[in-house]
Amino acid sequence: MRVLAIDASLRNTGVAIVDANNGRPRSLYFGTIHNASSLRSSSCLLAIRDRLAELIREHEPDCCAIESVIYVQSYKTAIVLGAARGAAILAAAENGLAIFEYAPNRIKQATVGTGAAGKHQVAFMVRALLGLTETPNADAADALAIGLTHLRAQEAARLGVRGGVQI
């Protein structure tokens, strides 16, 4: 199974392609879609959608996993985050991918062993679990963790344990 994993944000969307077709998970790609603060929000949304569509064509994932909406104190932040998630979901849906979402604490629990893990802990564990030679930045590490969470959820579902929520 090959997963497109996304940690959506307007300015720094973490993206990863994680593959487990040979048993052990491995990273085929990870990075961040950076959008300058000078760009209008609408241009950022197009950039997210277009780059994700490009990665989908290049890596041909089987599905998409994305972090679910998190609680935020500011309604403005929630709206911007929702728009970025919408652009990411649109890119996946336009390309026929099934989309699964995972809560942030579940991703941390699956990756580090505790739902209260910090960003540095997630990045460290992702590097160790995937045998990476470099520690990914926080956004890419979160995307890799989302991909690993989906692979584990699908394996658990195959064994009869509840998996992720498909949207």
Write a structural description:
The chain is of the alpha/beta class. The protein has a single domain (2-166), classed as Ribonuclease H-like superfamily/Ribonuclease H (Nucleotidyltransferase, domain 5, 2-Layer Sandwich), CATH 3.30.420. Helix content is 49%, strand content 21%. The protein contains five helices and six strands. It has helices at residues 41-59, 75-94, 104-112, 119-130, 138-158, and strands spanning 2-7, 12-19, 26-34, 63-67, 98-102, 165-166. Strands 3-2-1-4-5-6 form a six-stranded mixed beta sheet, with helices on both faces. A hairpin with a 6-residue loop joins strand 2 (12-19) and strand 3.
Condensed summary:
The protein is built from five helices and six strands. The protein is α/β, with parallel strands linked by helices and 167 residues long.
Please describe the structure with a list of short key phrases separated by commas or semicolons:
167 residues; alpha/beta
Mean pLDDT: 91
Question: What does the radius of gyration come to?
Answer: 15 Å
CATH superfamily: Ribonuclease H-like superfamily/Ribonuclease H
CATH class: Alpha Beta
Helix percentage range: 40-55%
Give me the strand/helix succession: EEEHEHEHHHE
Q: Structural class per helix/strand content? A: alpha/beta
Please state the second-level CATH architecture: 2-Layer Sandwich
Q: Which strand order do you get reading across the main beta sheet?
A: 3-2-1-4-5-6
Return the CATH topology: Nucleotidyltransferase, domain 5
The tally of structural domains comes to 1
The span between the termini is 18 Å
- Unreliable sequence segments: none
Query: What is the number of E strands?
Result: 6
Biggest beta sheet summary: 6 strands, mixed
